[in-house]
């Protein structure tokens, strides 16, 4: 029994450490490592350690405390696994698991050990710190964007892509300066998206399978390309190109007042125009999540095709 406890404990701890590092760095295999770690901890280490501790007592006491300890830790860690893997029911696990250590484990622990003279205040403080850490850990998991939201944004990206293609087909027979500038800006944004997708091990957005975006909650790749590439980032250059495109469209002789308002609204990159409290980058890219970045870039492309279509009516 002790051999199983030692082996499962060491293996689960090391797998948890490696899985956490892989998850933070967005390396492949992180989910497999974390799943194995939590599985070994919950189904091997935890029950065997509690059973061994209970049987090793001279006077076997605290039976219900051991049972409750297993249930609480099992539910919390399985809930963490469901949240990490974006499996259905993760939210319910966290709703139950976050308060469970305080409303079930703590009262049972205090009741079972109330007559134990060896139970010092130091032990109680250790228990409290452990429970608080467990609760904070669970809450931090729940702060991540849920998979349902990420999947919805993926569908929006696909739909916006189809709209862009549709608008482009309508203007395929038109060849003028505005159309040329629109194509240049559109293709520039497309290159940024493709660079982000390639860096995050995804397929080209031109493929219909773009509705499935892998590592959609990745924030590191988008941040590096948009803000840190070549010391400046693609977003700075994109903002300049959008401003140039806007000025080119507004300088067109055929544009009327309604069209001018539309262009100013869709391509408002001047942060001082309306006394914004946020920059253009913060308004357009509220998060560095991969899927949200792609959605923002695709939305700008849709606006480009929309303006092109309106001006060529």
Would you give an account of this structure?
This protein is mainly α and 313 residues long. It has 2 domains: 2-142, no CATH class; 147-311, no CATH class. It is built from 13 helices and no strands. Helix 1 (2-25) packs antiparallel against helix 2 (30-55), helix 3 (63-85) packs parallel to helix 6 and helix 11 (257-266) packs antiparallel against helix 13 (290-311). The longest helix has 26 residues, at 30-55. It is elongated, with a radius of gyration of 27 Å. The protein starts with a helix and ends with a helix.
Task: List its traits.
mainly alpha, 313 residues, elongated, 13 helices
Report the mean per-residue pLDDT as an integer.
78
> How far do the termini sit from each other?
79 Å
Query: For the CA atoms, what is the radius of gyration?
Result: 27 Å
Sequence stretches where pLDDT stays below 50 over 5 or more residues: none
**Total number of distinct structural domains:** 2
Number of strands: 0
Determine the fraction of residues in helical runs and give it as a percent range.
Answer: over 70%
Strand content: under 5%
Topology as a string of helices (H) and strands (E): HHHHHHHHHHHHH
- Sheet with the most strands, sense and barrel status: none
CA-based shape:
elongated
| Structural class assignment | mainly alpha
Count the DSSP helices: 13
């Amino acid at each position: 029994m002790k051999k199983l406890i030692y082996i499962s404990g060491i293996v689960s701890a090391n797998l948890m450490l490696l899985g956490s590092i892989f998850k933070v760095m967005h390396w492949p295999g992180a989910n497999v490592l974390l799943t194995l770690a939590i599985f070994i901890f919950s189904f091997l280490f935890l029950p065997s350690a509690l059973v061994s501790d209970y049987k090793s007592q001279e006077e076997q006491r605290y039976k219900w405390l051991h049972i409750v300890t297993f249930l609480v830790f099992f539910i919390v860690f399985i809930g963490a696994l469901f949240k990490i893997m974006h499996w259905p029911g993760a939210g319910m696990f966290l709703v139950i698991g976050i308060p469970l250590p305080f409303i079930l484990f703590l009262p049972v622990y205090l009741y079972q050990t109330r007559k134990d003279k060896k139970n010092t205040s130091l032990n109680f403080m250790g228990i409290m710190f452990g429970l608080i850490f467990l609760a904070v850990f669970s809450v931090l998991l729940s702060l991540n964007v849920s998979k349902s939201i990420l999947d919805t944004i993926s569908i929006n990206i696909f739909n916006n892509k189809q709209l862009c293609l549709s608008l482009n087909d309508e203007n395929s027979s038109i060849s003028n300066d505005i159309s040329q500038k629109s194509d240049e800006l559109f293709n520039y944004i497309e290159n940024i998206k493709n660079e982000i997708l390639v860096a995050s091990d995804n397929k080209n957005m031109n493929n219909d399978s773009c509705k499935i975006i892998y590592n959609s909650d990745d924030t590191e790749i988008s941040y590096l390309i948009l803000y840190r590439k070549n010391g400046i980032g693609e977003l700075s250059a994109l903002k300049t190109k959008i401003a140039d495109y806007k000025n080119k469209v507004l300088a067109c002789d055929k544009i009327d007042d309604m069209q001018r308002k539309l262009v100013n609204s869709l391509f408002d990159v001047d942060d001082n125009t309306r006394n914004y409290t946020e920059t253009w980058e913060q308004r357009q890219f509220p998060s560095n999540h991969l899927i949200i970045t792609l959605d923002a870039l695709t939305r700008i492309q849709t606006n480009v095709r929309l303006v092109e279509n309106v001006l060529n009516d």
